[in-house]
Design a protein that fits this description.
54% of the residues lie in helices and 15% in strands. By secondary structure, the chain is an alpha+beta fold. The strands form 3 sheets. A 7-stranded antiparallel sheet has the order 16-15-14-13-19-18-17. The protein is globular, with a radius of gyration of 32 Å.
Length: 819
């Protein structure tokens, strides 16, 4: 007898193997080659997971392995900073691993559901999309993603200017999926594994081809290079030094060191400008807190005037709202030109969220700061002594992991990025500082802007537009970096044009997939019993076996979503501002209709199964679980009075237990059960007969192509949006493509997307109103004349088609003619 089952040992070994490769991969160098295989062992364990619970468990274990392998240094730094010890810091980090790396859980969940429903190909695509969408919605504290590991490959990393690091991550996930699929099919020979292997190999081939094209292309003319002096003083632990020496002595030492190194940069190295790291001047500049602080401010201004070149340095700013971590731009002869205020603060160290802040938190976490965040990217003119003026984008520490800030700066006209950081908390673990610099370098690749990066004690560097370090430092050394970097007006990359689009596209793909799954043909299946079929047998059909609470939740969500449509329709009729605010409509539609619909579908899916009749038993099967219900034990079969959240039947067993089965055609299943030896349908009261007639009327309608959601909610709104948008362009911009000529393709397509979205919502609301009328009239007919309910329903459905597909275009045509 073995102590551990073989499956458990294989799962643990596979996760440890992936974790070991991640540990190597995170340390850079030639280990970037592991990017295409590092998740394969873990993916194979997910493929063998028999249940959703087992899949989530393996995803949780992978979050632990990944966090320990790649970010143990963060736990050490956290423990030392909080003064609780390195081991405690690592333990706290592992405890929070699912929150630190949630993409593993979401990836595994979506991949498992999609694979079991639609197959491995769509499962791989949906899993990669879920990963990217999760990291877009919940970006990690350090902005980390798998794509960062490709940085050592100068060739492959160039693809980041198309899809950012998120795009690289998606491609790496698909390459790993291809190799995992090849391993799964290896028993079938070379023919079976050829396709997944080819797809896996396509990823590095495409990236290499694109990188080769980018690196061989001419970057365009550049003027005189910008020669920057970057000061790395290697002075750390300001708080401890204040306690030992006093604040005045510490500021004096810091300034003297930076003055001396700046003198070397300007006088001996002829730098065009000088940059100090984050918070190098450890008090407020321009708003002194004391006479000594005012004297220090004047001293800095005199040094800048004497140097004759602009200085950029990390300091603090303050106003009536509070204090800010900031970068000061000081010009010789002009003084302080302005501040950039750090936008992305580190939680629980630089600030505490308002919902969490309070005296108790401050007592438990005495090291927490109280800085205010800035209001986004700003571009400053760097006026050099030779008359040149170069627009630059300042970023401070964690700002450099935010793709959006760099893109905003590029759109504002920046020609270089100036990054300041205080990486002293990485002193015990230089790996963290290396990863921070890699993340910053990708901002240059995405925007094609060169970058100068100054840190307190490493790693400082000059980075070109391809992400290469032209000159840099080691960790823990006092040194001066001087670099000449060509500065030019960069071409617009796809990332600058579209923004960080991969995560948004991934989220849209998942929404469309979820919507597709809710179509009638993808709901619990219809039962079709051929006339010649053996009554003791029934082909498997999709059902949802709903406990009472599950049906209540799914039904409540279903009713809420439909009722919200009516409420939205009334709100738009009564509120002119809402009627013209498409973004507000989209947010409301998503929150009050799409989200509850998706949640209701998820409930049905979680309890989905395959139902079949085999040799006198109803068999319900899901994954490895199977339930056999002998038909002789079924005491009663009853159709649901109201088809909420969808049609279904209830089975009453002789022992008193009940089963609720949701499916598209419950009457056919009830008939099949009766024919196979089950009881006939229960006698009904007049009310129940009316409700059953109402339900049967809905099931008896043969749906036409006009009832397909694509025809109703995609093509019809498109047909309505095109002429309306065309008219809008003529009125607002003077021609059909006026907005395109004035503001570019992105603005034109975004405007059209909003018009299409507005008409889609309008069609859905109109359909909801028509559907309410049809359902109410059908229910009335079922109560008064049950035998005529089907005929009434058919006439109402034809009227609904006429109102929707003829009435709405006619109304639009009349509106255009009046205009």
């Amino acid at each position: 007898m073995t102590l551990f089952p073989n499956a458990t040992v294989r799962t643990a070994g596979a996760i440890l193997a992936s974790g070991a490769m991640v540990a190597l991969y995170a340390r850079g160098g030639a280990a970037w080659l592991l990017s295409f295989v590092l998740l394969v062992p873990w993916l194979r364990t997910l493929d063998s997971s028999p249940t959703l619970a087992a899949t989530l468990l393996r995803a949780y274990l992978m979050t632990l392995a990944f966090t320990a392998a790649a970010f143990a240094w963060f736990g050490i730094a956290l423990g030392l900073y909080a003064q609780v010890g390195a081991a405690t810091g690592v333990a706290l980090l592992l405890l929070a691993a699912p929150l630190f790396q949630p993409q593993f859980l979401v990836f595994a969940l979506v991949r498992h559901i999609t694979t079991h429903r639609y197959g491995a190909v769509l499962g791989a695509l949906a899993g990669a999309a879920a990963w990217a969408a999760t990291q877009r919605l919940m970006p990690g504290l350090l902005g980390d993603t798998l794509g960062h590991g490709l940085y050592p490959s100068r060739l492959l990393r160039q693809g980041a200017d198309v899809g950012g690091t998120a795009g690289l991550t998606v491609l790496l996930l698909l390459a790993n999926e291809g190799l995992a699929a090849a391993l799964a099919r290896r028993a079938g020979g070379m023919r079976a594994i050829a396709r997944p292997l080819a797809l896996a190999a396509l990823v590095p081939v495409l990236l290499a081809g694109y990188g080769l094209a980018v690196l061989s292309a001419s970057p365009g003319p550049a003027g005189k290079p910008l020669r920057m002096g970057l000061i790395q003083s290697n002075i750390v632990a300001y708080d401890r030094q204040r306690q030992e020496k006093g604040t005045h002595a510490v500021v004096r030492e810091v300034l003297d060191t930076h003055f001396a190194m700046s003198y070397d940069a300007v006088v001996r190295q002829h730098a065009d400008a000088v940059m100090w790291p984050e918070t190098a001047y450890p008090t407020t500049f321009g708003h002194p807190k004391s006479d000594a602080g005012a004297e220090f401010d004047r001293e800095i201004l005199s040094i800048v005037n004497a140097a004759g070149v602009p200085f950029i340095f990390g300091t603090y700013d303050r106003d009536s709202a509070g204090e800010y971590n900031a970068a000061a731009f000081v010009q010789p002869g002009s003084g302080l030109m302005g501040f950039y205020r750090k936008t992305r603060l580190f939680p629980l160290t630089e600030y505490v969220p308002d919902w969490l802040d309070g005296p108790l938190v401050r007592r438990l976490l005495p090291w927490t700061g109280d800085w205010r965040p800035g209001n986004g990217a700003r571009v400053f003119p760097l006026r050099l002594g030779d008359g040149r003026e170069i627009p630059v984008l300042p970023l401070i520490c964690l700002d450099a992991v935010d793709t959006g800030l760099a893109i905003d700066g590029a759109r504002l006209g920046a020609q270089a990025i100036l990054t300041m950081s205080n990486d002293s908390w990485f002193t015990a673990s230089p790996l963290g500082a290396e990863m921070h610099q890699v993340a910053a370098a990708f901002r240059s690749i995405e925007t094609r802007l060169p970058q100068f990066r100054a840190t307190t004690n490493g790693f400082s560097a000059a980075i070109d537009a391809t992400g290469s370090v032209l000159a840099g430092t080691r960790m823990g050394e006092r040194t001066l970096v001087i670099a000449d970097v060509p500065v030019r007006i960069p071409g617009r990359t796809l990332m600058v044009l579209w923004g960080d689009w991969v995560g948004l596209a991934a989220g849209a793909f998942l929404v469309l997939l979820a919507a597709w799954s809710t179509l009638p043909s993808w709901r619990p299946g219809r039962v079709q019993v051929p006339a010649s079929a053996d009554p003791a047998m029934l082909e498997p059909v999709d059902v949802a076996v709903l406990p009472p609470n599950a049906r209540l939740v799914a039904g409540a969500l279903h009713v809420f979503a439909r009722a919200s449509l009516l409420w939205m329709g009334m709100a738009m009729l009564l509120d002119d501002a809402l009627r013209t605010n498409t973004l507000a409509q989209v947010r409301m539609f998503t929150a009050f209709f799409l989200a509850p619909c998706a949640a209701s579908w998820c409930v049905l899916f979680l309890f989905s199964a395959r139902a079949s009749i085999t040799h006198g038993s109803l068999v319900l099967k899901r994954d490895a679980h199977r339930l056999d219900i002998a038909l002789r034990d079924v005491a009663g079969i009853r159709l649901w009075r109201l088809p909420i959240p969808c049609p279904g039947i209830s089975l009453q067993l002789a022992g008193g237990r009940r089963y609720a089965l949701a499916l598209a055609n419950p009457g056919a299943l009830a008939g099949a059960l009766g024919a196979a030896g089950g009881p006939p349908g229960q006698e009904t009261t007049r009310t129940r007969a009316a409700l059953q007639a109402y339900a049967q009327a809905g099931l008896a309608i043969r749906r036409s192509r006009l009832d397909h959601p694509v025809a109703k909610f995609v093509l019809l709104p498109l047909a309505l949006a095109l002429p309306a948008f065309h008219l809008h362009q003529h009125i607002s911009y003077g021609s059909a493509f006026g907005e395109y000529y004035s503001f570019g393709l992105k603005a034109y397509l975004s405007a059209f997307a909003l018009w299409w979205a507005a008409w889609s919502i309008g069609v859905v609301l109109s359909e909801a109103l028509l559907r309410s009328a049809i359902e109410a009239a059908t229910l009335l007919a079922a109560c008064m004349h049950p035998a005529r309910a089907i005929d009434v329903r058919q006439r109402l459905e034809r009227g609904g088609h006429l109102a929707l597909f003829v009435g709405m275009p006619a109304w639009l045509l009349l509106t255009i003619l009046r205009a």
